[in-house]
């Protein structure tokens, strides 16, 4: 499965949750599949989805799901110790590990070669780290939500992108409607 | 006057309850003070752009954030300031130790000091420079201004403000 097929499958789970979504094609895909005010789309700033999501989870009680990428985790690897040492049980970091920088043309990342992000997360002190296959994503994500425990999910999947238009919504509009969804 | 206490008091008085830090020798006292406050959640970050991501999330979650960092981190955070904090219009007070200024003993620090104000000006970031201890009296107004206009705002604090470096 490629990322867009996974997002399509888990859209019913994401719909009712606060979602912080990774830069580029991941956000475009989520926006095209099921745009919600409770989705925070990153339009830039590669690497910070996991940090934004953690700050959000620590600041308020609703569950937060971060849809991140292997390349973005690699570029902000310092995020994993911060996550591990500041446990927020309403936080789920879901790393779509397609082994590539998808948005920029599927160039391979080191996560697709020798580097295991699940092992890195564990070594950083993260608990409830689960590596799963693409086909099991929905089940694993739902279980993580139901557990009420912080989770790091590493979803191993194929490289590839769906063709969708860029997001033209103004960033302040994205942010404002998201904050209203947080408060709702 | 204890500057560290005064700064923490002003943060609390302005309802700032989420503070991320990356240490600088000059900031050791204020970081320790913040760490001890019950009304502030202190979350050290590993890199300042990561810290700004945490602050952005905390603010959207309803908490007022602040970041405490060294001026060298301006080089680390330019992209984050432009494409996250400014693009989505978020408030972020940045208490910055201004290394490489008068009374600096480490020559390398001067190399970023000479770019610090130019970079902040290029980004249209409102910038205040504390040189004398009494300048801290402005902090309360600067914090109010930051959350009024929803912008990142820089407060540069040099060695003279902190009472010298090495001989303090
Ligand atoms: C600082 C910076 N460097 C590079 C880019 C270009 N870029 C945007 S998205 C992306 C790939 C992200 O890969 P990953 O997080 O694995 O997400 P995927 O698209 O594979 O799901 C890159 C390299 C950028 N936006 N910012
Ligand atoms: Mg990827």
Automatic annotation (TrEMBL), chain A:
<keyword id="KW-0210">Decarboxylase</keyword>
<keyword id="KW-0456">Lyase</keyword>
<feature type="domain" description="Thiamine pyrophosphate enzyme TPP-binding">
    <location>
        <begin position="41"/>
        <end position="154"/>
    </location>
</feature>
<protein>
    <submittedName>
        <fullName>Sulfopyruvate decarboxylase subunit beta</fullName>
        <ecNumber>4.1.1.79</ecNumber>
    </submittedName>
</protein>
<dbReference type="Pfam" id="PF02775">
    <property type="entry name" value="TPP_enzyme_C"/>
</dbReference>
<dbReference type="InterPro" id="IPR011766">
    <property type="entry name" value="TPP_enzyme_TPP-bd"/>
</dbReference>
<dbReference type="GO" id="GO:0050545">
    <property type="term" value="F:sulfopyruvate decarboxylase activity"/>
</dbReference>
<dbReference type="InterPro" id="IPR029061">
    <property type="entry name" value="THDP-binding"/>
</dbReference>
<dbReference type="InterPro" id="IPR022494">
    <property type="entry name" value="Sulfopyruvate_deCO2ase_bsu"/>
</dbReference>
<dbReference type="InterPro" id="IPR051818">
    <property type="entry name" value="TPP_dependent_decarboxylase"/>
</dbReference>
TrEMBL record, chain B:
<dbReference type="InterPro" id="IPR051818">
    <property type="entry name" value="TPP_dependent_decarboxylase"/>
</dbReference>
<protein>
    <submittedName>
        <fullName>Sulfopyruvate decarboxylase subunit alpha</fullName>
        <ecNumber>4.1.1.79</ecNumber>
    </submittedName>
</protein>
<keyword id="KW-0210">Decarboxylase</keyword>
<keyword id="KW-0456">Lyase</keyword>
<dbReference type="GO" id="GO:0050545">
    <property type="term" value="F:sulfopyruvate decarboxylase activity"/>
</dbReference>
<dbReference type="InterPro" id="IPR022502">
    <property type="entry name" value="Sulfopyruvate_deCO2ase_alpha"/>
</dbReference>
<dbReference type="InterPro" id="IPR029061">
    <property type="entry name" value="THDP-binding"/>
</dbReference>
